[in-house]
Amino acid sequence: TREARHMKIAVAGAGVVGLASAAGFAELGHTAICVDIDKEKIASLQRGVVPYYEPGLQELTLRNMAAGRMRFGTGIHEIPADTEVVIMAVGTPSDPDGDLSLTAFWAAADELADWIEKCACPAVVVAVKSTVPVGTADSLEEKLRMRLPPSESGRVDTASVPEFMREGSAVKDFFEPARLIIGSASAQTAERLTSLHAGLPGRVIFTDRRSAELSKLAANAFLAVKISFSNEVAVLCEQIGADYNDVAGVLGSDPRIGPHFLGAGLGFGGSCLPKDTRALVRFAERSGAPQTLVEAAIHVNRQRTERIAHKLEEALDNPGASTIALLGLAFKAGTDDMREAPSVRLMEELMRRFPGMELRAYDPASTEAARGIVPGQVRICRSAEEALRGADGAILVTEWPEFGKIRAIDFRNWMKRPIIWDGRNLLDADELNAHGVRCIGTGRPILRRIAFDENS
Ligand code: UDX
């Protein structure tokens, strides 16, 4: 049983994970301060404006600010001394070697050590939500305790509470977690974190700190493996004339496999899956337990853009003299996040392989975010129609519902040659093909050299 007891908590880091957690815990009745060294971000939040696109987060934040359960600060020194739980949610991006960069994390830990030493807080649990290498919560505890006299070292304890929320559904995922992981070395800490989460559904899995840390990396790596597996089977389908949609339906109906993350496409991207899989590979290598499957998943992911370039080459007479429209730029539909977006790799591959190809791109959310990230030669359009007008072909990169609403007649009226490579199998290929639009899906038989009817 989880007993509700309202606590004073603090969250370090006001990114999606930090802010959604702070606002979510405030909604559960706790009092939260969310701190970040980014003064602009904090100033915006203090005005009640969430400075990025995340459905529901704005309302949740405003409601809890108005109720007096949530406020913001520009540093750890602003955390009140009677805070019971400090959640570490600072970003851990990839460093150039593919490891997780802990620069911001340890900088925050240093500030936290000063705070614990000076403020004489009675007993604080520091719960790590940032995705970190295994052993980080252990090292953090050692670092914080070193600053206290030995008789007082028990004033601080660390735990690992990894976060699995997805961008675009962070608020929903906070309130409906598939499971909650509490990795700690002491029963009191586990108990305090259990009451922190009281009110949330989902099974609580208690474990040690290292297992909790590894679970997060392993879960993301498993999802990456599942996607790359799907993508390789899809290529096989294209080669032999089988339909991946049907194969995936069969796979997904087996409860041992499960229906999710079997979607073939241009590969996985985003701020987590690519970086966490790389980090696991590096960490595992150093630990003497190489993760060859995960390495292969990364390799397969890199080949996705070559595959689509190959498919274009197969179907177009003169790709170098063609104009191609890309629909979807951000790493997935429903977000404006361009981090490790497959669209960027795709554009680079097309430009390298087909010098002279003219590229245009449209995304319903990331027009602004995409500027400066996509290669300069690519024209960023304000609508799908603008991107498609006069194009010799289009590639559907992400599954925004608005792309699914474009009718065969629109494709035919707007495009010079109505041919679509549907990267996510969003469109009704049979319907489009029946109405004179060539739709080449992913994991569906490749059509060899299409004969265009110039008058259609
Ligand atoms: C992911 C994890 O899902 C989440 O648990 C973790 O905490 C952070 O990383 P997110 O980065 O928001 O969340 O993206 P997600 O929705 O998982 O998609 C990741 C990538 O995989 C996207 O590029 C998406 O397009 C791709 N994907 C997903 C597929 O190619 N096929 C699928 O079937 C599912």
Automatic annotation (TrEMBL):
Gene3D superfamilies: Cytochrome c1, transmembrane anchor, C-terminal, NAD(P)-binding Rossmann-like Domain. This is UDP-glucose 6-dehydrogenase. The active site is at C272 (nucleophile). GO terms for molecular function: NAD binding; UDP-glucose 6-dehydrogenase activity. NCBIfam families: NDP-sugDHase. Pathway: Nucleotide-sugar biosynthesis; UDP-alpha-D-glucuronate biosynthesis; UDP-alpha-D-glucuronate from UDP-alpha-D-glucose: step 1/1. Belongs to the UDP-glucose/GDP-mannose dehydrogenase family. The keyword Phosphoprotein does not apply. Its EC number is 1.1.1.22. InterPro entries: 6-PGluconate_DH-like_C_sf, NAD(P)-bd_dom_sf, UDP-Glc/GDP-Man, UDP-Glc/GDP-Man_DH_C, UDP-Glc/GDP-Man_DH_C_sf, UDP-Glc/GDP-Man_DH_dimer, UDP-Glc/GDP-Man_DH_N, UDPglc_DH_bac. The keyword Oxidoreductase applies. Substrate binds at F164, M165, R166, E167, K216, F261, L262, G263, A264, G265, G269, K332. Pfam families: UDPG_MGDP_dh (PF00984), UDPG_MGDP_dh_C (PF03720), UDPG_MGDP_dh_N (PF03721).
